[in-house]
Amino acid sequence: MDLDSALYKAMTDDDISKHCHVNSNEDGDRFVGIKADSDNAMVYFPIGYQLPKEDGEIRKDIKHLIQVLSEFTTSEDRLLAINKFAAPQTVDFPINAYKSVIEYYFEKGGKYYTEVDPIYKTASKGKQNWTRTVRDQVPLVQQKNGVSSFIYTEFTVKDVTPNDTKIITQINRFCVYEAFKKLGWLYVPYMPENPGPHPDPKTSIAILNAKLGNTNDDKKRMLFQAMKDMLEYMDEKTSDRQFYFGTDNFDHVWEKLIDRAFGERNKENFFPRSRWLLDYGKYKEKRPLMPDTIMIYNDKYYVLDAKCYKYGWTGIPDHLPDGSSINKQITYGEYLEKHKGIKNDSLFNAFIMPFNMAKNYFEIKDFVGNIGEAVGDWRDNKKNYERIQGIVMDTRHLMYHYSGKPMKEKIALAECIEAVLGRGEVPKPRI
Fold this sequence. Notes:
By secondary structure, the protein is of the alpha+beta class. Helices cover 34% and strands 22% of the residues. α6 packs antiparallel against α7.
């Protein structure tokens, strides 16, 4: 089976969930995004994700996943190894261009982009063109008091008619067809008709460049740019056997989601720095320790480390942050206390890990919960920041509520972290 056949199979499948998979974060099961090859088309969701039951909701979630990946990944993030023996390849599939072409087609009621040609006709009403009216129409002549006047009972008026034979429409038909071949299965079980004759990619790109230079209509510009991006991608002679859009490093996306939802913009003010004073060569300042996120709420400071670990899915202690991560968080807290003057009762520490609130080991029913705490046995553990709270957060909920600094989520997270205040003293380590 070729790629087109595999995509058509996905399009006509009445159960889109068959083409969805939630990662386990095991080796070989970390990719998040869309993969399509000659065998199948699949969408891979991150660990902790709860897929909806309804077909329409699943398709909505797929498009939202594309949005999140588009926002929080770069071409460098989308570096994939086809197999362990092959060199990595950069994935530059312009998925948003394909989406834009499809969505413009739907917005127009399943019609292609067309331009109108002006036509002129004789009528008693309409937008009058006086130059043509004087030239083409015969007026009535009226005499009064020796003065002649002209009365026009009919005029040459301007009208427009859509012209779907223009080259730009041919290009759009081709782009719509190609977009549906790749991504139509995410929307509807439908395939538009064969596009018919159309210019080659290089000619089409030149025409679109001219259109972009001659229009100020934002919607048209977005469409022309999307079509151009598609054609440039196809002109690069990319493989017709497979396409990918996504990342093997969703950990970075998880960190950015947490930071966007809860973090302060000026977090660099809270970085502990270090340096070498070299006996040879130039003075050297090392890269500072950088916490993922600093959250400030109600005059309290929360140092957050986003960890896309498996514990929220498995409940296995080996899947928790290790000693080096724990000690690093304690260092952040100590720095903020001693060098930024933040008092202990206003300073907290936490790891944020993904989980599924609909199905989890801990029987937590809310989108966020506390599963325990981490401490360093080399510390007294009398300070709040020395006791790093283990927090799990529902993956799907975060992906839909990361923007706009959501206050409800921030309050709930703060309450979960401040559970440390109700805990007893940390027991001494077993020898």
